[in-house]
Structures are given as structure tokens and as C-alpha cells.
Design brief:
30% helix, globular, 19 helices, 25% strand, alpha/beta, 641 residues, 29 strands, six-stranded mixed beta sheet
Length: 641
């Protein structure tokens, strides 16, 4: 047994007894220490760097660790074996990602979209209220002559006075009836869900002078991030919002790595704990403290996540999602009690999970389509959700087609040498001076740069192509003699955006030809998916009247640059709309409109899914799109000159 001390830089110290020969990354996970590991320990991303302060580990040489770093004690934690007592210095970037990540939530612009869509839906006949309701009721006190049971007395009132034919009451609520009825002489408040002719009673308590304020939560469970908003269900007002990184990132940046991890002993439960306890319950705790309410007053949660996130939340084996023919355990998940999943709200509170369509088109997309709303439009509209995966929906009120592509983690900084997620210090916008190739950039929080996030990577590569630093294949021009352009011992080109030598910086931040190649494959996957989806319907790109871009990458996405790189179709920029967190908007609307949840279910059933991996021409189109902007310039007429 070996003693391991983790020093989380500037934060805290964690001690652990590890087995001799245990992997350092696995030991950190056991200790609850967050180390960024997008590839989940496969030694391919190079992100899990830590510094061995004292003692030694057994490690192998890797291209991710320079000679200088190795000499200073820096190792990849996934590539290090514990052989003696050690002290490890862990950068706090990973926990900053979880707690400080810049995440799309419901901004003012998005709130305006909600108001607009909500009015449109109400005009189309939806009910402008939620299913959650409360009544203050004076029941007749029992007598020798009127001696029916408390439960029967309550049900009779609902049938005779409120018109419900069926009333359901759980055992937990039944236990409250005797004391609640008699506290104020049978003056009670009843909280219940309206389900047409069915009333599902969630709570019974002694009545006060006014009805209680009831609360609900709209929840977006993303692969990279989790966002929530707390809603006053009496007024539909959003009271507060909270966002954080999905704590599952320590087990991999993408769904495939997490599915693989789930197969390890205890892996599935670790992933469930990370999303429920470390993420969702953490957000709920923050929101109730901010507003000053009790968790017991939250009775409804409307959530959306991709198909893998749903499986991991429910503790279902997700392994068959990644194996042909890619079959989910379940798409349409029945509404259940939050307590069944360990979500800390009222024990009788209900959680609705937006239904999935297929293994790689989940409830986040069906909720997003509800919010745009593609399903109500006359014109041809597309929703493009850009994240770890890219999902596309095309159609109008008559039809909906959808597909998904594996964009990989490049859009969110994963597997990019100096890539990072959207944390303070992440470079999010870049321009390069054409005369001297000097870069200019903005960072999140306007602090010293720590790396490059998705929108910054898009800007940087676009600017490198515009200024002639790279060609259409993403290769750097070998005849350029410039201090910011270097080639390593293997001949791989690097462009330095921020340099210890040139900028007196604290670290080097650069992009390599390998990074650019990873990005080109990611953008190629997105564009080829869009192209194949349209081609399968024999429709040209120019029939598109609206393209809504959703997802975290869109926060500072420059549409012009995205088109110039061949990531998005070459149609007029004014036809593009950044919709932000469409999944969250859909959840809010479903929470506050009585028919919203049924409509999302209907949308999911009406969507036709195309599996790109077996499409006969997808790989050819993907290869054609792996060029800046594309090998077929007829698809990008505005860029030909």
C-alpha cells in the first residue's frame, strides 16, 4: 500500500492509500479529485497532466510530455503507475471547468424567444398553465354519522367539487393525511398534478391563509455541461439559473468513452453518482439557497439529455448504444418520482425526461425542436446542435428528418494540444494581422489565457487560412519564416498564439497541424451530415430559409468564419439564428404549458432518423468535406473569389 497526497493547486489537499501498481488517474478518481481526462485514460488527449512533487511513479515517454516538462516532474496521470509514496500537484483547471464554465443558459435574447414561441403555441391552442396545481379546501369534519375515512373524504371532494373521475394518492401522502387534516380543523392545502380527468395528489398539508408557491425545474443534461432554471409555477417566472460542467467529464469527454467506462466494475454507478449527486443535486442546492426556498416545495422537473445521458441517469446499461445496430434500452421514458433517481426535491415530485429518437438523437433534440419550433413552421428550417456530437434536424410542419454525426471533442477543446473548455482564461475570439501574422484575442473573463476553447479554435483556424499560414489541407506553409511558426522534431508545424518567449507569457499556447486535422474532421462530419440529410430528400441547400444553431459552441460562434471553414452551409448569414440552449428552452415550455410534454412526445414519434454510419455515400461526402472549405467549391459559391 502506498500513500498518495493530492495537492489541488490553491484549493485543498486530499490523502489516499493506494494499491502498489495502481494507475494514478484511477486513484485520483477514487479520491474524488477532478483531473481533466477527455479521452478517459487512453493517453491520447494529453490533458491529464499532473506534477509529481515528491516520490516517483512509473511512466512511459509520450509525445504529450516535453523533455522540459518531464524534467520538472510532469506526467500524464493516466500513463503513471504508483510504485511508492508520492505527493502530486493537480492543476485546478478541471474543477474550474465544473464550477466556473461559461455555459449557455437562458439569456435575455433566449427569454425573448421563449415569449415569442409561447405566444405562438398558445395561439395554436395550448393551455397557458402548467399541470401542477394547488387548492385550499375546507373538508367537512367527520362525525359519528359521517364517518368515512380521510382518504375517501378527500377523493369525494375532488369528484364532487372539482370534477375528477380518478384520484391517485401514494402511500407517503396517505401517511400525512391524519395529522394534516386535523391541524386546522380539516382546512387543508392539496398539491396535485392535473392529468385530464385524473388528479395525482402529490402533497397534503394544513392550509395557511394563502396558497403555497409551487416550484419546478427545467433541466438540460448535456454531455459537457448541466444547466437548470428554477421556475415559479404560479406565475411561470424564472427565478434563478445555475450551470456547471457535467461531473462525468472525469470519466471521459464524450459519450463513447463514458460508455466504455460504464463497463468497468462500479463504473455505471460512478457515472450515475457524478450526474445525480455531483451535478444535478449540486445545482438544485445552489438555486434554492439563492432564492431562499425549501427543496420540498419543488414538485416537478422537466429534463432533457441525449440518449446516453438518459441511460446513465437511469442506471441502464448503455453499451449497446455504441454497437451496431445501435439500439437503446428505452426511448420514451415514463414519468417517475424524482426520489427514484435520488434527485433532491419533494419526495413525491415528478421528473419528466424528454423522449429520444435513436441512439444518437436524444431528448435534448426533441425538446429543442419543440422550442424552435420546426414542427410549426411552413418554411424549410434546420436545427443544428453543435456539441460533443452534432445533431441535425430538417423539416417543417409536414415532416421532420434527423441524423447525428460524431464531431468528437474538438469543438469543445478536447484532443487539441492547448484546447480547453469554456473556463475563465479560455481564448474565445481570435484575429490575426495579415501584415505581421501577430494574433489578437479575447479571453473569457478577460484574464490571462489558459488555452483555446471551441469558438476560439474556429476563429484561429479561419484566420490562419485567411492569412496564408495554412493551406486548404490544414498544412502550414514550409517557406514561412516567422517566430510564431515552428516545426518539431517530427516536422509537425505549430503556430504560437501566446508564447513565453514572444509575449513574456506564463505558458505556451499553440495549435499544431495535428490539432487542425482533428478540427477539419469534426467540421467535415457536421457539413457532410447536413449535406447527406438534404440530398436524401433530393433538396438543394438553398431551399433552407432558416438555420438555428444551438449548443454551447454557439455562444461566441462567428457564423461567417464557420461558413468560410466549410462547417456550415453557404447561405446568407441573415438566415442563421443563434438559438442558444434550445434544450433548456424546450424544457421550460413543457414545464409551463399543460400539453407541452405530450407535444414533445408527439414530435419524437414523428421524426424520421437516418443512420449515417450505414449510408452508402456518407464516407465519400465526409472525405470531400475534410478540406477548407470543401473539395467541391460549387457548394460554397460566395467563397470562390
Amino acid at each position: 500500500m502506498k500513500k498518495v497526497r493530492f495537492n489541488i493547486k490553491g484549493k485543498r489537499t486530499v490523502d489516499l492509500i493506494a494499491s502498489d501498481g495502481e494507475n494514478l488517474l484511477e486513484a485520483a478518481r477514487r479520491a474524488g479529485v477532478m483531473i481533466d481526462s477527455p479521452c478517459s485514460g487512453n493517453a491520447t488527449c494529453g490533458k491529464c497532466k499532473v506534477k509529481i512533487v515528491s516520490g516517483q511513479v512509473k511512466t512511459e515517454k509520450t509525445r504529450h510530455i516535453s523533455e522540459e516538462e518531464m524534467a520538472s516532474g510532469i506526467v500524464l496521470s493516466c500513463n503513471a503507475t504508483i510504485i511508492e509514496d508520492i505527493e502530486v500537484e493537480v492543476p485546478d483547471l478541471a474543477s474550474s471547468f465544473v464550477n466556473e464554465m461559461q455555459i449557455t443558459d437562458l439569456s435575455n435574447n433566449e427569454n425573448e424567444n421563449i415569449k415569442y414561441v409561447r405566444k405562438k403555441m398558445i395561439k395554436e391552442g395550448m393551455t397557458n398553465q402548467s399541470r401542477l396545481w394547488s387548492e385550499i379546501i375546507q373538508l367537512p369534519c367527520p362525525t359519528i354519522e359521517d364517518n368515512c375515512a380521510d382518504e375517501d373524504r378527500l377523493k369525494l371532494y375532488f369528484k364532487q367539487n372539482l370534477g375528477y373521475q380518478d384520484i391517485t394518492i401514494s402511500l407517503n401522502v396517505m401517511k400525512k393525511l391524519p395529522d394534516a387534516f386535523r391541524k386546522n380543523d380539516f382546512l387543508i392545502e392539496v398539491v396535485y398534478l392535473k392529468r385530464r380527468e385524473v388528479a395525482e395528489i402529490l402533497d397534503v398539508k394544513p392550509a395557511n391563509s394563502e396558497k403555497s408557491v409551487l416550484y419546478g425545474i427545467a433541466l438540460d443534461i448535456g454531455t459537457t455541461s448541466v444547466s437548470a432554471c428554477l421556475v415559479d409555477m404560479n406565475t411561470n417566472e424564472i427565478l434563478t439559473k445555475a450551470s456547471m460542467g457535467n461531473a462525468q467529464v472525469k470519466y471521459g469527454a464524450d459519450v463513447i468513452n463514458r460508455i466504455v467506462y460504464s463497463e468497468k466494475p462500479g463504473g455505471l454507478e460512478n457515472l450515475r453518482h457524478a450526474i445525480v449527486d455531483e451535478s444535478i443535486n449540486n445545482l438544485i442546492e445552489k438555486m434554492v439557497k439563492t432564492v431562499g426556498i425549501k427543496k420540498e416545495d419543488i414538485y416537478e422537473v422537466c429534463a432533457a439529455g441525449n440518449t446516453t445521458m438518459n441511460h446513465l441517469l437511469l442506471g441502464l446499461n448503455p453499451d449497446y448504444l455504441r454497437r451496431e445496430p445501435f439500439i437503446p434500452a428505452i426511448n420514451d421514458i415514463p414519468e417517475m418520482k424524482c426520489a427514484e433517481l435520488g434527485i433532491n426535491v419533494n419526495p413525491e415530485g415528478k421528473i419528466y425526461l424528454a423522449p429520444s429518437v435513436a441512439s444518437y438523437v436524444g431528448g435534448d433534440i426533441t425538446a429543442g425542436v419543440f422550442a424552435v419550433p420546426v414542427w410549426m413552421r411552413e418554411d424549410f428550417t434546420m436545427l443544428v446542435d453543435l456539441g460533443t456530437n452534432g445533431e441535425i434536424v430538417f423539416g417543417n410542419k409536414d415532416f421532420l428528418m434527423t441524423c447525428a454525426c460524431s464531431a468528437g471533442p474538438a469543438f469543445e477543446g478536447g484532443e487539441i494540444s492547448c484546447g480547453t473548455r469554456a473556463v475563465p482564461g479560455a481564448i474565445e475570439q481570435v484575429t490575426i494581422n495579415e501584415e505581421d501574422l501577430r494574433p489578437f484575442y479575447n479571453t473569457i473573463g478577460h484574464v490571462s489565457p489558459v488555452g483555446i476553447c471551441g469558438s476560439g479554435i474556429i476563429d484561429l483556424i479561419c484566420e490562419m487560412k485567411r492569412t496564408g499560414i495554412i493551406n486548404g489541407k490544414g498544412r502550414m506553409e514550409r517557406d514561412l519564416d516567422h517566430p510564431r511558426i515552428k516545426f518539431d522534431e517530427y516536422g509537425i508545424g505549430q503556430y504560437y498564439l501566446y508564447s513565453k518567449e514572444l509575449d513574456n507569457g506564463s505558458k505556451d499556447i499553440y495549435i499544431t497541424e495535428i490539432d487542425i486535422d482533428s478540427f477539419i474532421k469534426a467540421k467535415g462530419a457536421v457539413f457532410s451530415a447536413i449535406y447527406i440529410l438534404m440530398e436524401s430528400l433530393d433538396m438543394p441547400i438553398d431551399v433552407l430559409e432558416n438555420i438555428y444553431v444551438a449548443g454551447g459552441i454557439g455562444t461566441n460562434l462567428d457564423i461567417t468564419n464557420a461558413i468560410a471553414l466549410g462547417m456550415l452551409p453557404d447561405i446568407p448569414v441573415e438566415k442563421y439564428f443563434y438559438i442558444g440552449n434550445s434544450s433548456m428552452q424546450g424544457c421550460y415550455l413543457a414545464l409551463t404549458l399543460s400539453e407541452g410534454k405530450d407535444k414533445i412526445r408527439e414530435i419524437s414519434q414523428n421524426m424520421t432518423y437516418m443512420e449515417l454510419s450505414v449510408h452508402p455515400t456518407y464516407m465519400d461526402e465526409f472525405i470531400s468535406a475534410c478540406f477548407i472549405p470543401h473539395t467541391n467549391m460549387n457548394l460554397f459559391p460566395s467563397l470562390e473569389n
